[in-house]
Write a structure and sequence with these properties.
- This protein is an alpha/beta fold.
- It has 2 domains: 348 residues, no CATH class; 114 residues.
- The chain contains 22 helices and 5 strands.
- α18 links the parallel β1 and β2.
- α4 runs parallel beside α7, α7 runs parallel beside α9 and α9 crosses α14.
- The radius of gyration is 26 Å and the shape is globular.
- The N and C termini lie far apart (95 Å).
Length: 494
């Protein structure tokens, strides 16, 4: 008679068990639930985010998927991506998810959220709230989300996991993870060097097993790149060094100062700066477990400054984790100081909450605004690429200033006027002085079948006699923010 009814005592017992289970696991579950909600929100906002540079690596992955090999242009063994391993990863997963750009965004956003969780866990070695605040800031910082389609967020995750493993004396896990970081991008090699020095200083002996686990795969990988491409260094490194020397070029350090001035226009970002400076003092005095991350960040900044590369916004994203950590430790130091003054607990708690709100508000506002204003080039470049793929012969060559999106969707042999694909063009950038100069040189050197020019970037070139004699307009494309591009077809046989 009572089979369909539940026992109230059993219900109470189950509810009690659930409460006890939540209480026992709350500290571990809250960050995971927060991460899941954050990931869903970020995927909604940035799942289709994109800009031109990552599409160079996407094309390597797509060529692998279609059997053309690890190349950008079919038949040309030129290393134009800094992250060939990432291209291999995208190609492997591309069999399951063929939309490579969205797949890469998904990997990037997962890596970003996972990195925030690592900071939260890492922070438990000191004041847990410092890691929690650092993770929150990292997960919503606009620079990190802007670069989510690149391999840099995955690199950040690998380095943070590796550094955390070193701090916990798990050297085998640290060696394997940091080896992957060093293979993924050259900056990852700095992480291995920092970790190696720290281990030697702490242990006074070299753990050979861990050292070999790191050194062997790294050496094999870079030797393989050397054999396959003739050099382990990508072409685009030289191109970006040359771009910084052009008449309108801006080097890495100057770009960093411009970025600081941009942040300085928002009053609340001054709060981030002040807390970061205070947090640095806190790290020196008591929170030394963040030392590996800060050391790598300093070496990264020094390395890029010495390389003299041009300013690109994604070059500054790797600085964000250290900044987030310093701000988090600064908050911990301020709250600790208030407690030492024996200020009432409710006032301390309220001040800490208000401080965190003020810290999160600017990046959150910028993140939402950025999500609603995607890069206007993404849509128009895709239209151009798809038109070229459908309206031009498969063997056609196409020259343009930005080859990422157009090259990915056109699947045509690309001539890059900014030097990221052809080493010869990269060598001309500084001497040409402007992109109009390098474009003129590249056209006269390669005579591509089609040329794509932005009217704003090249106001004079289409009107020159030599260009008008060789090319005629084939199709124009318009986009937002006064984007107006024309595809020119070669009419004169060279």
């Amino acid at each position: 008679m009572n089979e369909g009814r539940s026992d109230p005592q059993q219900q109470g017992s189950a509810a009690d068990c659930l409460r006890h289970w939540w209480r026992d696991n709350e500290s571990a579950l809250v960050p995971v639930l927060l991460a899941a909600v954050t990931l869903a929100w970020l995927l909604l906002l940035f799942g289709r985010w994109g800009f031109d540079d990552p599409y160079v690596t996407y094309r390597y992955a797509d060529n692998l998927l279609t059997g053309k090999g690890l190349v950008y242009n079919a038949g040309e063994r030129t290393l134009s991506t800094v992250a060939p391993l990432y291209a291999l990863l995208l190609a492997a997963l591309g069999n399951l998810w063929p939309d490579v750009p969205r797949l890469s965004n998904f990997i990037g956003l997962i890596s970003l959220v996972a990195s925030a969780l690592v900071l939260m866990r890492w922070g438990k070695r000191g004041q847990e709230s410092g890691g929690m605040i650092a993770g929150l800031l990292l997960g919503v910082w606009p620079l990190m989300l802007q670069t989510s389609g690149l391999e840099r967020t995955l690199l950040m995750l690998l380095m943070l996991v590796g550094f955390h493993a070193v701090e916990r004396s798990r050297l085998t896990a640290a060696s394997g993870t940091l080896a992957l970081a060093g293979i993924l991008r050259p900056e990852g090699l700095l992480a291995g060097a920092v970790a190696g020095v720290a281990i030697l200083l702490r242990r006074r002996t070299l753990p050979w097993r861990a050292a070999l686990l790191y050194l062997v795969p790294v050496a094999v990988w870079y030797c393989a790149l050397w054999i396959n491409f003739g050099s382990p260094l990508p072409v685009n490194l030289a191109a970006k060094q040359q771009q910084a020397q052009m008449l309108m070029g801006t080097d890495f350090v100057s770009g960093f100062l411009q970025l600081l001035r941009q942040y300085g226009r928002h009053p609340l970002y001054w709060l981030h700066g002040a807390l970061a400076l205070f947090g640095l003092a806190q790290v020196v005095v008591r929170a030394r477990h963040w030392g590996l991350l800060l050391a790598w960040t300093a070496l990264y900044f020094l390395g890029y400054s010495l390389l003299g590369v041009s300013r690109y916004f994604w070059f500054y994203a790797p600085l964000v984790p250290a900044v987030a950590v310093l701000v988090g430790e600064g908050v911990v130091g301020v709250v600790g100081g208030l407690r030492q003054l024996r200020i009432p607990h409710f006032f301390v708690a309220g001040s800490a909450g208000l401080l965190i709100v003020c810290l999160l508000a600017p990046p959150l506002a910028s993140t939402v605004a950025m999500a609603w204003r995607p890069d206007p080039r993404l849509d128009v470049y895709r239209q151009i690429g798809e038109w070229l793929r459908s309206e031009t012969p498969p063997e056609a060559t196409v020259g343009t200033l930005e080859v990422g999106i157009i090259g990915y969707y056109s699947q045509r042999t690309m001539i890059d006027f900014s030097g990221l694909v052809q080493p010869e063009v990269a060598q001309q950038l500084a001497s040409a002085g402007t992109y109009e100069g390098s474009t003129k040189w590249a056209i006269e050197r390669f005579w591509p079948d089609y040329v794509v020019l932005d009217r704003a970037a090249f106001p004079r070139l289409p009107a020159t006699d030599w260009f008008g004699a060789a090319y005629s307009p084939a199709r124009s494309f318009a986009g937002l923010e006064n984007l107006w591009l024309t595809v020119y077809e070669r009419t004169e046989t060279q």
